[in-house]
Amino acid sequence: MNKYQKLASNTIVLAIGQFSSKMLVYVMLKFYTNTLGTDGYGVMNNIISAASLLISVVTLSISDGVLRFALEKSNNGKMVFSIGINICIVGCVVFIPLVPVVGLIPMLRGYQWLILLYIFTGSIKEVSAIYVRSRYSVTLYAVDGIVTTVSTIIYSLLTLGALKWGVTGYVISVVLGDITSIVFLNAASRLYRQYHPLHNSKALYKAMLKYSIPLMPTAIMWWIINCSDLFMVAGFISDDANGLYSFAYKFPNLVTIVVGIFSQAWRMSAITERNSRATSNFYSTTFSMIQTVMFLGCGGIMLILRPIIMPFFGSEAFQPAFFYVPILLGATIFQAMDNFLSSIYEAARKTTHSMISSVIGAVTNIILNLILIHLIGIAGAALATLASYIIVFIYRIIDTKKFLYMKVYWAKIIVNLALLVGMACSVMFIPYGIAQNIINSVIFLIISALNFQSCVQAVKLILNKKKKGTPQR
Q1: Gap between the Cα atoms of 85 and 96, Å rounded
Q2: How far, in whole angstroms, is CA 395 from its chain's centroid?
Q3: How does pLDDT run across 309-330, given as a tens digit for each residue?
Q4: Contact predicate 293/258, CB 8 Å
């Protein structure tokens, strides 16, 4: 199996497991919006967003260290896993005195102890799943994604539908889903036999923390870019507006899910193939593949946004969210490219460079949010997010040349982005009807034609019909 086949194989397995589980969440989206309303849906997203950030802070992003060091077969796997779990436990214990401080935040008041429980179960589940993916089986990791999602949905039907516990019920269902995942992973791979809390290598502790700690502020910066606008919209406008904005985010996330699945497989390849003589070609080709998926995915979302997505997924109160989706789709394109470029830093163990670029993006995001939300409301938050990702992309595309030469086909990027801007203007400013659908259909066909050759070349590389991989345009 060549490196392209291995990348494709891991991607397919992850896609079968995770994409199907993510789709189940979207099937349930109307249930969540109808049950919680715009206000409750906004509060729910604030809690989940805050807890996701705190997992990285409390655990010092140790899950990234577990992935990086577990993939290196020369390391003792039991020690890598044990160190990861130990840091999660210690981090949660240290965080307990700070939990009341979380309760002082108006948007999180009353949920602070529930957030601590979310952090604890979420971090243990994350380390366990990543270790299984690195050392045992990508297939088992994918199956765990389905188990977690299905169980969470069952719990949410109980807590939201039957018991009417509202936002608290949803968070409890997520916690119970994580617990179910932990039990499943332990039963399937006997992880409990891998865990030894004492007598682990101090040198390995130091190496894993040295790698992970710079990724913790990086995670904070990415959270600021991704999620701070949700809090600012809630604070400067209302929870209802935040609910609309959170709903609009769901559909760009469809494309992000696809690329995210690919990125999980790619991170494994980027680490294991970093010493290959053909590394430059491998990175160049893969970068082009990601762009193709993003351009086609974002164009496809805009094509069906008004006629299919909005009527199917959202109640009447959520319909105005369509206006913000095209801007957020643009942000996801640059987010995907930023994440790909960060893999160069991770493979080279230069995670401080990733942190620096993330700080620049986060500062930009905060400043623009403060200015634009007051000027143009929710759209200002979306534009701030887009601008932040563009700035990080510019920094990283220049900075990563220090560690790896990678050919970038700028003409492909510029032409596709211009066409997507045309679709965005059509969706946002032309009244919905036949004219809008015709314009969007024509533009999408052009995008598809421009990226057809890239798709064909990707298939050839995966099927090994070329002896040597060459970057695709």
Answers
A1: 17
A2: 20
A3: 888 776 677 788 889 999 999 9
A4: yes
pLDDT value, residue 21: 59
**Token pair for 26:** 């979207």
SS3 163: coil
Amino acid at 396: R
- Sequence-distant (6+) residues with CB within 8 A of 60 are 87, 91, 209, 212, 213, 216
* Dist. CA 122–CA 108, nearest whole Å: 18
Distance, CA of 433 to chain centre: 33
Nearest to 50 by CA among 147, 167, 134: 167
Nearest to 255 by CA among 19, 9, 33, 31: 19
Q: What does the chain come to in residues? A: 473
Higher pLDDT, 268 or 430: 430
- How far apart (Å, rounded) are the C-alpha atoms in residues 404 and 381? 34
Phi-psi label, residue 361: left if phi above 0, alpha if psi -120 to 50, beta otherwise: alpha
CA distances from 391 to 312, 358, 386, 395 (A): 35, 10, 9, 6
For Cα atoms 143, 144, 150, give the angle at the middle one, nearest 5 degrees: 95
DSSP state of 403: T
For residues 211 and 473, give the distance between their C-alpha atoms in angstroms, rounded to a whole number.
34
Say if residue 44's pLDDT is above 70.
yes
Q: Is 272 exposed, middle or buried (0-12, 13-18, 19+ CB in 10 A)?
A: middle
| Helical axes 29-58 vs 215-236, angle rounded to 10° | 140
CA distance readout (Å), 270 to 15, 286, 313, 435: 18, 10, 37, 45
Do 151 and 21 meet the contact criterion of CB atoms below 8 Å apart? no
Q: What is the per-residue pLDDT across 54-66, written as a single tens digit (0 to 9) for each?
A: 998 999 999 988 9
Closest CA to 427 of 294, 320, 334, 318: 320
User: End-to-end distance of the chain based on CA atoms, in angstroms?
Assistant: 24
* Both structure tokens of 240: 């209802």
Q: For residue 233, give both structure tokens.
A: 């919209």
Measured N-to-C along each axis, helices 410-429 and 434-462 cross at an angle, to the nearest 10 degrees, of 150
> Where would I find the beta strands (DSSP E) of 114-265?
none
The answer to whether 119 and 55 are in contact (CB under 8 A) is yes
